[in-house]
Amino acid sequence: MVVRLQRYNQDLIDEFRKTFFDKYPTGHEDFDPRDIQRVKKYDKYLYNVLIISKSNVDVAVEKLEKILKWRKEFEINDLTWDSFNDEFKTVGPLYCRGRDKQNCRILWFRVKHSKKGDPELTRQAKKFIAFWLEKLQWEDFDNPVVIVQDMTGAGVSNMDLDVIRFLIGALELYFPALCEMLYIYEMPWILNAIWKIIEKLLSEESKAHLKFLKAKDVMSCFEADQLPPHMGGTDTYEWSYPPPEQFRDLEDDPEEEEEEEEDEDESEDTKMHSILEADRSADEISPDARNRPGTSGKSMPPMPSKEGGDTLKSTENIPLNEDPDVAVKKVHFADDSERNKEEVGESQRSKEKANESLENKENAAPSQSSVKAKSKKKATIAKKKKMKEVHVGPLISTRPGESLIFKPTGNKNNPKELKSTFTVSNMTDSKVAYKVKTTSPDKYRVRPSSGHINQEASVVIEIIYLGGESEQVVRDKFLVLSTELGDEIVRSTAQLMEFWRTVSKSTVVEHRLKCMCETPPEALVTNHDILKELHILTKKVSKFEEDRQRSTSKTGTSLQLIVVLQFILICIMLYAMFTSQPSEILQDSCYKAGSQLPKLTL
């Protein structure tokens, strides 16, 4: 399931937005200006990108770049109902109706109304899917959707693999954290093999969002009044065009933009007022600020306090095995005083129309703080790059300093086995004890996992991933603990374990290492092979379907011919019976009449 945090980590969102606009201060030619404005205005949109990025700002910036480029290439902001032909609008292959038991909106995908083969039709189908997902995304940020791919009455001719792959890709990246679950209802047996190959292309996380439903299972996810009759429900709704009011084009309402501008002005006023009042909690957001267009008037989740007292410390926002306090500090690129100057400056700029006489004074402070923040940001990035290869701590140094790269070992008995090594060096004038821990101890073999290092000495630690899906490696982390050994004499593993049990935690230094997986050339070929196999299997299934239809047609023709022959044979028999009976009757009657005549004697 999609992890949805109970409240925003506003600091993380601010850092995300700042990092993005530091890289693209004036936007980019590959980005639609309307999307850039959304990035500036809507915290919830950035929040959703952070969700699919595991709260990693650098990853989130990369994903946002891909999303914005794709949106412009696909002309998402220009899609309207008039962009599609009458078949898409009237037949209703996609429409939104009802909610599941988790109160998620339901997007119905009636596969039997799809057709494959025509490239232009496939392109239109992809855009129609994106059109609906876009409407649902901006209609209500706080409410995810579930997609029911109804396979009732569908066959091979309706199964367009390009459209299915596009749908999955859109849900994984281009519409972040929108889909809670993709249900496949009543998958025909003839398509099972195709779906099994499609599943190989999905990550483990995506597979968790995919569920196959039979008719007997559907009631566990949906109420009867939310299902159509062919699924055992009571909802007799049929799609018709024009659509319901909430799904009509935004252009149909000329007052939409004016209302948005008014709401934005009021929300900026409220923001300035909340910043200037030091005692006011950031959770107190005005109703106008909460009811922005595109959110169906639903209130946004409460923001954490700027003072830090109410800052989110959920483990969903913090890397594994990391202190919440440390994680919170990581999101500050500028100090609190500079942050406050920027926020006050932004708030003052929103009052320019009412206070034109103070314009120069209000713009001077934020410009200076902005320069300071940018310079500090660049220094931080440069420092990170320098520290990437080697991490130097107070007791030990580790090489590599941030990430462990796992590579295939070439073990024929276990081809999925991966290996990584890193070096730990003593940076002090005395002996140092070290210990290596991981979030998934059952998956890894660490040699040596603990020990001590003499002055100016080093030790190479080997980590072997015992097997499984390579995508799982990036979810794990390693923690290297170190402390001065002092005068302690450690000669056995038992003594070392006893030392770690009794050592004071205040003297232990921790350093975390992320995991990365190097993709071997064979893995790059694997996806190609899978796609090739999928293409071959699709051809075989199509040929099988054609042969089956041809055989059915021949069988029907043969049955018709047999029926006709039987009818002709019956007609011949009846004709023969009726044509032979009159002569026999006539002969019989003549014989009887002659036998009754009296004999004449002369």
TrEMBL record:
Gene3D superfamilies: CRAL-TRIO lipid binding domain, Immunoglobulins. Residues 250-268 have a biased composition (Acidic residues). One of its GO terms (cellular component) is endoplasmic reticulum-endosome membrane contact site. Residues 373-386 have a biased composition (Basic residues). Residues 84-239 form the CRAL-TRIO domain. Residues 269-291, 326-362 have a biased composition (Basic and acidic residues). Signal peptide: none annotated. InterPro entries: CRAL-TRIO_dom (IPR001251), CRAL-TRIO_dom_sf (IPR036865), CRAL/TRIO_N_dom_sf (IPR036273), ER-organelle_contact (IPR053012), Ig-like_fold (IPR013783), MSP_dom (IPR000535), PapD-like_sf (IPR008962). Residues 395-518 form the MSP domain. Residues 232-386 are annotated as: Disordered. Keywords: Membrane, Transmembrane, Transmembrane helix. The chain crosses the membrane at residues 558-578. PANTHER family: MOTILE SPERM DOMAIN-CONTAINING PROTEIN 2. This is Putative motile sperm domain-containing protein 2. It comes from Stichopus japonicus.
